Amino acid sequence: MPLARPAKAPLAAKKPHSHTHHGITVEDPYAWLRAENWQEVMREPEVLDKEIRAYLEAENKYADEALKPLDDLRETLFTEIRGRIKEDDSSVPAKDGDWYYFRKFETGAQHPLDCRARDAAGKEGVEVLLDGNKEAEGEAYFKLGGLSHTRDHGKLAWAADRKGSEFFTIHFRDLTSGKDLDYTVPDTNGDPVWALDNETLFYTKLDDNHRPCQVYRHRVGTDPAADVLVYEESDPGFFVGVSETQDSAFILISTHDHQTAEAWLIDGRDPTGKPRCVEPRRAGIEYDVEHDAPRGRFLIHTNDGDAEDFKIVEAPVDAPGAANWKDVMPHQAGIYIIGQLLYRDYHLRLERKDGLKRIVIRTLETGEEQVIGFEEEAYDLDLHGGYEYATTNVRFAYSSMTTPAEIYDYDIAAGTRVLRKRQEIPSGHDPKLYETRRIFATAKDGERIPISILYRKGTPLDGSAPLYLYGYGSYGITMDPHFSAGVLSLVDRGFVHAVAHIRGGKEGGYRWYRMGKTTAKKNTFEDFIAVAEHLAAENYTARGNIVAHGGSAGGMLMGAVANMAPDLFKGVIAEVAFVDVLNTMLDETLPLTPPEWLEWGNPIEDEEAYSYIASYSPYDRVSAQAYPNILAIAGLTDPRVTYWEPAKWVARLRDLKTDNNALLLKTNMEAGHGGASGRFERLKEVALVYAFALAVAGKA
Hints:
Structural class: alpha+beta
Mean pLDDT: 95
Low-confidence stretches: none
Oligomer: single chain
Strand content: 25-35%
Shape: globular
Number of strands: 39
Helix content: 10-25%
Number of helices: 14
Radius of gyration: 25 Å
CATH superfamily of the domain at 18-83 and 428-696: Alpha/Beta hydrolase fold, catalytic domain
CATH architecture of the domain at 18-83 and 428-696: 3-Layer(aba) Sandwich
Strand order of the largest sheet: 32-33-35-34-36-37-38-39
Largest sheet: 8 strands, mixed
CATH class of the domain at 18-83 and 428-696: Alpha Beta
C-alpha cells in the first residue's frame, strides 16, 4: 500500500531574518520557528507560541493523512514487534549484601517495577520498591531516571522526568514504610549517589539552559533549599556528573567535554569533606579513576602521553596527580581500551581489537590475564558492573544480529561461564534462518569501512532486494552489531539490513573517531555513501533502492547524504535530526553548543570552522534538486536536538525540492529526544518508521 498524496502540504511562512559572521551574511527565513522562550517550552510545552504550534500541528495532520493507508500495516508491525517482547520479563538479579536487586515488567505494563528479593532467582521475599506504572498514572509522559539505594538498604532515591525535557526530579523513599518523603529535588540530571553514611546524597543540578554544571550535597530530612553546593563548573563547554568508585570508598565528580576530563574525589566516609582534584584538566587529556583499596592506589584509564588508544596507569591514593602516574597496562596501538572495572582482586578492561570487543581480566596479585571473546563475525559485548567489590564473579552481555541477548556470569577463579538469561522471543526466533556478514567498503581516501549485514536466508542477492541502511558516526559512539527483534519485521519481508560503521564512531579505535570530527567531518558522510555504493555494487541491493535511517547526529548524517547523493536513496528517515548545524553552533545559549564546539568546531570565533560547517550543514545545503522520500521525526521538548531543527529543514525542503516524493514531519508534542515514553508507545514509533520504509520500497 503506497503513501497517500494529500492535496496540499503546509507551507511555512518566510520571514526576513539574517545573521552575519566573518563578513558572510546568511538569510534564514524560517528562524521564526525557534521559540524565543524555548527554555520555558522545555518545562511547560503549553506555552509554545501559537503560530509555531499551528505550523507543527498542520505538519502532523498532513503526515497523518499521508500515512493513513499504512494504518493496518502499522498495527500489524506493532503487534508483530510487541509479540517478540516477553511482556512479563525481568533482569537477572544482582547481589548486594543479603539482597538481590532486579527490574521486571508485568504483562501489558508500559513501565518497570524495581524490586529486590532474598534469593538469586528473585523469587523469595520479593519486595516492590518502585512501581513505575503507578507513578506514571495520569502523566502524558513519564520516564524513570536513576535509582540508588543506601548501603543499609533502608532508603531509595529515585528520579523521574514528566515532560520529556530531561529535567529529572529526585524523590526519597523510606523502604521500610514504602512511602516517599514530603519533598523533592527538581531540575537534576537524574543521577543520585549515596554516601556511606546512608543519609547523605549527591546529585547534579541542571541550569536553565539544561547544562549539568553543579553538584550538590543533600542530607535526608532537611530542606533541599539548604543543600550545599559542592562543585560548580564555570566553563559552559564542560558537563558535570557524579558517581562513585566500585568499592564506594570515594564519591567521584567528573567534568568533561568531548576530549578533556577532570575528576574530583570526596572520601565516602567523610561526605562533608572538600573534594580534591586528581589531575587538573589539560586540553586533550581524558581520564577516569578506580580505587584499588588493598594496594593503596588508584588505577586510571587515560590517553595521557600520546596513548591514543588509551592505557591503564597507577597512582598513590594520597598523591594521584599525573606526576606520579606509572604505566600498568601500557598503550598498544590498535587495541582500544574502552573502559575498566575494578574488583578487590581483579581488574577488568573492555577492549576493541580488529573492530570487535573482548573482555580482558587481570589477577591483580599475579598479573595473569584471561580473555573472554566470541567467534561470530560480528557481535556486541558489554560488562555489567554490579554492586559488589569483593567478588570473583563478573557479569557480561552478548548478542549479535542473529543471536538474541544473552547474560552470562563468569567465575574468574574457575574460568567458567554460566548462561543466566537468554532473551526470549515469545513469537519464536530461529537464528538458523538468518545470515550475518561482516564486509568492508573502500572509502574515498582508501580507508576500509566495516559493514555489518543481516538478511534472511533465501533473500535474493542479485540487486533486487531493498536495503535498510543505518548509520550514526559521531561523538565516538560505536554502533555495535547487536540483536534487534524489531528489524526482523523488515528482514522477514525481504529487506537486507546493514549497519555502516563509519568514521566518527570508535569502531576502529580512537583514530576512527578523530578522523570523523571537526574538519574531517565530511569523512562520515562520504563513508556512508561509499558503503551504500559498495552494497549496490555487490548486489545486496541496487542504487535508488536503499532506505537510509539515522537519529540525532545520525539524523544530521541523513540530511547530509540526502543533499550529496539523493539518487542513491529511495527513502530517508531522520529521527530527532541535528540538521541545522551552523545555526546551532552559532547559538551559545543552547544546551549542547559550547561542549559541541570540540566535535564540530566553533564557527563564532573560527572562520575556517564556519566555512567548513556551512559546506555540509544539511539545512544550509538544501537546494533545488530531486530528493528521496523523507520522514522526519521531532520531539517538542527535546533539549538535545531542538524541535525547530527538523521543522526548519522540512520547511526549506518543501520550498526548494523539485520532485513529487513524500516529505513528512511528525513532531511528538508530548515527548523529547527519546520519543514516546513507555515500552509499547515507543514501539508504535518504530512501527511507523518501518511502515514508511516498506511503503517507499514497494513492500507494503
